[in-house]
Specification:
Layout: H1 2-41, H2 45-48, H3 52-59, H4 64-75, H5 83-103, E1 108-109, E2 112-113, H6 121-129, H7 145-158, H8 168-176, H9 181-192, H10 195-201, H11 205-222, H12 224-232, H13 238-246, H14 255-268, H15 270-283, H16 285-288, H17 293-301, H18 309-318, E3 322-323, E4 326-327, H19 328-338
Antiparallel strand pairs: 1-2, 3-4
Length: 352
């Protein structure tokens, strides 16, 4: 028994040593990459951003110290929002909160009904408390609670046509962790203005169906066996993809891994969100093939916590985003052309 215990102790010691060695190597790589990003890439952003060397370095994950800056540059500011404009909409939000607390009613504000549940101040309050609850920093009294509240409130004033939708708080929170307040708002508004995000947050049903149909083309191409298994249960992409897309995986994956997904999403755009989804399905393909409808839905709604970036990104890298000779954008364009309003084809995603 003593000998066995000693063996286990030695084995554990080797395991700890290996983990420490890998962690040290990872830290060295991050430090080395940080120097390259700060000294070479960022000062020459427009020239270097699309080079093969930068794209390869980008794929490995951005150093936390430059992550926010690179995200901002990659997302861009097509809306031309300034910090001053953010302050204006934040002031309007504060006026609304003040008016709401005084009258305790949700009547029309500037012609837009805020009685709608998605635009209600109560929903924002409730969602903030549910945002990364284990971190505590966004909870009432936490250092980022008011900042998150401010950005979400300002956005509902800036885009009353979109309002507040559940899931937005996670996106804003991730940006707050990586950027200053005004910069986080600018990135947030521009990110939500991208076609995919706008389609989902405005609940544009026909456009969402087109995204699901395009996803299924690549699902069948890459994971035909699992695709048929899902099809046999009439398990459509909306069941698991909606939550992943709404929060850009920040609710579904460990935060550090979600940030790495964001890194490449900022580089490659919406295509990478769906490629990540296929990577997750590939990673757990063997397990999912043994499950029925209910267990698959439960599993994909709450992914295992021990998912690692190495394993996931190996699976994502193996996913081919090409159907015959068509790439994501071409397939999506074909789907856009083929699917008329109210026209349903045989894709199970379009029967939901």
């Amino acid at each position: 028994m003593v000998a066995e215990a000693k063996k286990r102790e030695i084995k554990e010691a080797h395991k700890r040593k290996k983990i420490m060695k890998e962690r040290f190597k990872q830290e060295e790589n991050i430090a080395s990459a940080m120097v390259i990003w700060i000294n070479e890439i960022l000062p020459n952003w427009e020239v270097m951003r699309s080079t093969r060397r930068v794209r390869e370095l980008w794929w490995q994950g951005l150093p936390p110290s430059v992550r926010g800056k690179v995200w901002s540059l990659a997302v861009g500011n097509e809306l031309n929002i300034t910090p001053e404009l953010y302050e204006i909409f934040l002031s309007r939000a504060k006026e609304r909160w003040k008016s709401f607390s005084e009258t305790n009613s949700e009547s029309d504000v500037e012609g837009v009904s805020v009685a709608d549940r998605e635009a209600s101040l109560e929903l924002i309050k409730l969602d903030i408390s549910r945002t990364f609850p284990s971190l505590y920093i966004f909870q009432k009294g936490g250092p980022y609670h008011d900042v998150l509240h401010s950005i979400l409130g300002a956005y509902t004033c800036y885009r009353p046509d979109v309002g507040y939708v559940q899931g937005m708080s996670f996106i804003a929170a991730v940006l707050i962790l990586n950027l200053e307040e005004a910069d986080a708002f600018i990135a947030f508004a521009n990110l939500l203005n991208k076609p995919c995000q706008l389609a989902f947050f405005r609940v544009d049903h026909s456009m969402m169906l087109r995204y699901f149909a395009t996803f299924e083309v690549f699902f069948e191409e890459n994971l035909s066996k699992l695709f048929l298994h899902f099809k046999s249960y009439s398990l459509t992409p909306d069941i698991y993809l909606i939550d992943w897309i709404f929060t850009l995986y920040s609710k579904s994956l460990p935060l550090d891994l979600a940030c790495r997904v964001w890194d490449v999403f900022c580089r490659d755009g919406e295509e990478f969100l769906f490629r990540t989804g296929l990577g997750i399905l590939r990673l757990y393909e063997d397990i999912l093939l043994q499950m029925d409808f209910i267990h698959i839905a439960q599993f994909l709604t709450k992914l295992p916590e021990d998912i690692t970036s190495e394993k996931l990104f190996t699976c994502i890298a193996a996913i081919q985003m090409q159907n015959s000779t068509k790439k994501w954008t071409q397939v999506f364009a074909s789907v856009m052309k083929d699917i008329k309003e109210g026209d349903k084809n045989n894709s199970p995603a379009l029967k939901s």
